[in-house]
Amino acid sequence: MNRNGPDRQSQRQLGRISRRAMLLGAAQLGGFGLLAARMYQLQVLEADRYAVLADENRINVRFAVASRGMIVDRFGQPLATNRTSYRIAVVPEEAEDLAALLDRLDRIVPLAPEHRQRVIELARRQRAFVPIVTHSNLTWKEIAHVAARSPDLPGVEIAATDERVYPTGELCAHVVGYVGAVAKKDLTGDPVLALPDLRIGKSGVERVYDDALRGEAARRQVEVNAVGRVIRELHRDPGKPGATVRLALDAELQRYGASLFGEETGAAVVMDIHSGEVIALISRPSFDPGLFPDGISQVNWDRLLNAPNAPLVDKAIAGQYAPGSTFKMLVALAGLESGQITPKTKFHCSGVLELGKGRFHCWNRGGHGSVDVHDAIVQSCDIYFYEVARRIGIDRIADMARRFGLGSRLGIDLPGEQPGLIPDKEWKRKRFDRPWQIGESLVAGIGQGYVLATPLQLAAMTARMVNGGQLVRPGLLAESAHPGQAEDTLTVSAQALDIVRRAMIGVTSEPKGTAASSQIPHERLRMGGKTGTSQVRRISQRERRQRVLRNDELPRQERDHALFVGFAPIDAPRYAVSVIVEHGGGGSRVAAPIAADLLRVAQMRLSQNQPT
After folding, report:
1. Catalytic amino acids?
2. Partners of 575 in the β-ladder
3. What is the rounded CA–CA span in Å between residue 130 and residue 149?
């Protein structure tokens, strides 16, 4: 029997246990080492980082909307400003019974059932100490009634806020624009945009200069507890109110111009020919911008969208019309520059021009006889400009038109400006995959066919014609635009410009001038200009067989538009004007008198009121 057997077995078992203990101890030691290293990393190496995160978790920045800047006209008259408005909010945790509180509040200032339900739902979802707005835009009288009952209204808070108002109402709506609540598409990550009281520019000057008008929001750095309740204020930055934006617009001239249209629709622009300052920009019909700041109702929105004559469209910058005979001045300049005509070149007008199988009529079916370029502009002879267009072609006409600002946006500081259209051979090939026809040149030569322009473009075109060819651009800010410099002068013959300018004076001053009856009856204020008719549609052969022979015999909405462009005074031009009266017929009948009155009043106000 081996007496040493059990002892050896015990030793082997003890050895195995010792190795296991060593491995387990090593693992434990390694674990403690890793834990210690992680604690060292967190408490020493990354202590600053986590301290910042902890601070961010208990320190918040609260923002408050800055007072929005005013918009004023050139004389300081407010066009957009603020007035104090009052609102009521309830703090659910301070109300013993929220439903009963809302009932008591409803008896003082009515609360719509759907809005009451919304307040109750919000109270269920959000933290009990967060105020919920129940009423907005309350009057001082309504607030006084609530304040008098405050002991019975625990948890009710009264606050004053700014409400955007537009003193001139619809008169300047397309220019000034309006503000509205921030929509999802407006969010950029800026926390200020999430403020429920914030209103941002949605159209017009309110939109273009929104950053300046909005100012800088006030900031409060506060310490909060775990549920977000403010414990104390750490720092306050009062922010900065929005800047005042001063426009070149003359609100009284704007008001007068709108009155001249009466029930007619259309647009008018008056601008300084040297600085480019737009002192009147009228679009009729218009709308009430005060409908928008607190959210326009669906009923009112649908009414505006479906209203006849498009009140939301700024026709002065977005209405695109055939320029009619106002375009003939550009054709004359292109013809003179090409050498195809001279000041003495005459064409005979018999009332009709035959080209192949086509017959192109003059507006004067009896004809004008033999006329030169001066007489052709004064009397608006179509045949003369058919002949010029046939000789020089569409590309030369298009080049001249583009030099004067047609066919592209002028860059006025308003959203929604349209470019109009100046066609040429390449344009038609790309658009229709067809060659340009000579008959189309003739039609374009009198400002019809594919040619389109905005009233703003026609005013700028006129300004450039009478200011010596300076490349002036229209602008809305007072004293922000600058006269054209030498390098900004159009490459057009001064002699040719003088020929056209003298003819424009003849339009309103000579016996055969198409606007002779609309001349301003003041020697120092006299104007020059050019009438035009923007064709809406032609009278069909069927209608002619039914004895519908004149445009004014068509239904009102199918009649031609009346146009006029002009400048004044004739001896030292200062202002250019363009007027379009939709479906008004010939320009001499309705558009020219409006233009004359606008230029007369603009000059008189200039002499009586100098901007401060």
Report:
1. 325
2. 272, 568
3. 22
- Whole-number Å distance between alpha carbons of 381 and 368: 7
pLDDT above 70 coverage of the chain, percent: 85
Calculate the alpha carbon distances from 540 to 29, 339, 353 in Å.
Answer: 103, 38, 20
pTM: 0.84
* Cα 280 from Cα 461, distance rounded (Å): 16
Question: In terms of C-beta density within 10 A (0-12 exposed, 13-18 middle, 19 or more buried), how is residue 22 classed?
Answer: exposed
DSSP-derived secondary structure letter, 525: G
The pLDDT value recorded for residue 486 is 38
User: Exposed e or buried b for every residue in 295-330, given b needs 16+ CB within 10 A?
Assistant: ebeeeeeeeeeeeeeebbbbbbbbbbbbbbbbbbbb
Residue 542 CB coordination number (10 Å): 8
Q: 227, 58 in Cβ contact below 8 A?
A: no
388-407: average pLDDT:
97
Q: Report the Cα 603 to chain-centroid distance in Å.
A: 27
Q: If residue 463 lies in a helix (H) or strand (E), which one and from where to where?
A: helix 455-466
Rounded to an integer, what distance in angstroms lies between the CA atom of residue 278 and that of residue 599? Answer: 13
DSSP state of 588: T
Mean pLDDT on 392-410: 97
Please compute the mean of the pLDDT values over residues 559-567 and round it to a whole number.
Answer: 93
CA angle 81, 83, 84 (to 5 degrees): 150
Greater confidence (430 vs 93) lies with 430
β-bridge mates for residue 531, sequence order: 564
